[in-house]
Specification:
single chain, about 240 residues, alpha+beta, nine-stranded mixed β-sheet
Length: about 240
């Protein structure tokens, strides 16, 4: 499980090592991730090391080694964007669903279904740090989806129960970076906290509103919230 910044730093180090064989300096990392201080880079590197993605080599300055990449990232993925890398907002690609896996006919989606990538868990309560990697795909009836790209998330928490969204439900999200007041959205707060809430726009501020009176509405400046997608459907197993 990686936050956006952890993912971006990992990919930046990976691309720099591929290009020159030398890890970037802390100043280069700070600039690439648009952080204000090196202490933030230290925290990110420690988190990546604890999660087994990188290793610091002893007795050598700037000695970082990539141990592994997230499952959702191909090792030869071309770099794009600022700083020589292509960041994903939430770890894993929220792009188009992968083609149905090879296998027997029973393993493949029925003709009237589409494979939608399951991107892990989303908090409907106190925000969790990030969404997990794309682990598998699920078949979804075509008529449950809108136009565009979709992904699925498993709900954790009870803050949206009055909207009919319960702990353990699977929500279907249409990828979008915009939403209207009243939409239920996947929101990323401060590039780290992913949560499922109803969006309210109040002047220049953004409110993330729970559908449970036990939770307070959280209000943020517009630069602190990134919309990842809008709710279009829900799957519940009994």
């Amino acid at each position: 499980m990686l936050t956006r910044k952890q993912y971006e730093l990992l990919m930046f180090i990976h691309e720099r090592l591929k290009e020159s064989g030398v890890p970037p300096s802390f100043d280069e990392m700070k600039e690439a991730l648009d952080l204000r201080s090196k202490s933030g880079i230290h925290r990110l590197i420690t988190a990546l090391e604890e999660r087994g993605f990188i290793r610091r080599l002893p007795h050598r300055a700037r000695a970082l080694e990539i141990v592994r990449l997230p499952d959702s990232v191909a090792p030869g993925l071309p770099a794009r964007g600022r700083g020589g890398f292509a960041p994903a907002v939430i770890e894993g690609s929220l792009g188009k669903a992968p083609p149905p896996p090879e296998g027997t006919a029973e393993d493949r989606p029925a003709p009237d279904t589409v494979s939608v990538p399951m991107m892990g868990r989303i908090a409907a309560g106190v925000p969790i740090s990030a969404i997990q990697n794309h682990s598998h795909s699920i078949p979804v009836p075509v008529d449950m989806l809108a136009k565009g790209e979709h992904f699925a998330l498993e709900v954790r928490g009870d803050s949206m129960i009055e909207a009919g969204i319960l702990d353990g439900d699977t929500v279907l999200i249409r990828r979008s970076d915009t939403a209207d007041t009243g939409d239920i959205v996947v929101a990323l707060v401060d590039d780290e906290e992913a949560t499922l809430k109803r969006l309210r726009k109040k002047g220049a501020s953004i409110a993330l509103e729970a559908a449970n009176s036990a939770y307070e509405t959280r209000i943020f400046g517009p630069d602190r919230v990134d919309i990842q997608g809008r709710l279009v459907g829900l799957i519940r197993r009994y």
